[in-house]
Specification:
6 helices; mainly alpha
């Protein structure tokens, strides 16, 4: 090396000689792998976001749906109680499910209400 500074023209001429490679290491396969990786990452984030948004809100305590039952007709009360029983005790609901469609309605309304209150 010399002790004197390069002129601007000489420095620019030396920079023109630098050529970057047309393709990087791995070439097309590396580019495809990066695109697939980024797309997978975005897909995972979207699935996680969708899962957070679709989480079922925990059911309210059983007492809230039972609070306004006295004002409902008997058929509607039975339906509400069966829905609450299905959520609170699915095994008991499965046991009486066949009796629901019997001509008399199967389980007595007072018994059904007592079971729902006991399981809450």
């Amino acid at each position: 090396m010399t002790d004197r500074a390069l002129s601007e023209e000489a420095m620019l001429a030396s920079l023109r000689d630098i050529h970057l490679p047309a393709e990087t290491a791995g070439g097309l396969a590396a580019d495809i792998a990066v695109v697939i990786g980024l797309a997978s990452l975005v897909a995972l984030m979207l699935v996680g976001l969708a899962r957070l948004l679709s989480l079922k809100v925990r059911a309210a305590p059983v007492e809230r749906p039972l609070a306004g039952l006295q004002d409902l007709p008997e058929a509607d009360r039975r339906v509400v109680l069966l829905h609450v029983l299905r959520e609170a005790a699915p095994e008991r609901y499965a046991a009486i499910r066949g009796a629901i469609y019997e001509p008399g309605g199967g389980v007595d309304l007072a018994t059904l209400e007592a079971e729902v209150r006991a399981r809450a």
